[in-house]
Design brief:
alpha+beta, 2 domains, 5 helices, 5 strands, extended, coiled coil, CENPP protein, CENP-P
Length: 190
């Protein structure tokens, strides 16, 4: 093989090594910025937040008071999960852009509503003007377990187009509840 052939291979090897280095850096950045919250981490965060806010307002509270407040919050959370049927299993948030009055974050959220699994991915743009904060949802992507129903597919498509998370959660809650009723009814007749 001639000198030019070896040089071409050397150049290709160097280009691949550079690409590997850049991808490794990108992966490390994403891994550090992306946070996944388990139930335990959420409770720790709530407890930490309570200490900060309560500590500022009332001084230091006793551990028993904090424990009672935490139990109250856990009870409230359990009630809301039972009432709405939503059980969130994972959440990740990555800040894409941050300026003095504008923040763009990418969220990934997954969970279940009754027995229907769902996954959401969206960007949240928060803008602050004077004392007002506005938030806009964009790039909404919804993946649901129950796509065999064409009405659900149409609803998911419309929701993705409009980026209306509140309507999605309200409608999913109602649909999932009735989905459970239909499933139990059909099992009864089998």
């Amino acid at each position: 093989m001639d000198e030019g052939g070896f040089q071409a291979y050397e150049d290709e090897i160097q280009a691949l090594e550079e690409e590997i280095r850049l991808l490794t850096e990108k992966y490390e950045d994403m891994r550090q910025e992306s946070t996944f919250f388990s139930d335990e981490e959420i409770l720790k965060s709530i407890k930490s937040f309570q200490r900060e806010t309560q500590g500022d307002a009332k001084g230091h509270e006793s551990p028993s008071d904090l424990k009672a407040q935490l139990e109250s919050l856990e009870t409230d959370l359990s009630f809301l999960m039972e009432f709405t049927g939503f059980h969130f299993t994972s959440h990740s948030k990555k800040t894409v852009e941050k300026t003095q009055n504008r923040t763009v974050q990418k969220h990934r959220l997954s969970g279940k509503c009754h027995s229907l699994s769902f996954q959401l991915e969206f960007q949240l743009l928060e803008m602050q003007n004077d004392e007002k904060i506005s938030a806009v949802v964009s790039d909404l992507s919804i993946v649901m377990e129950s796509r065999e129903d064409s009405n659900v597919s149409k609803f998911v498509s419309r929701t993705e187009e409009h980026g209306d998370l509140l309507t999605f959660f309200r409608s999913l809650s109602t649909y999932a509840e009735w989905y459970e009723h239909r499933k139990h009814t059909f099992l009864h007749f089998k």
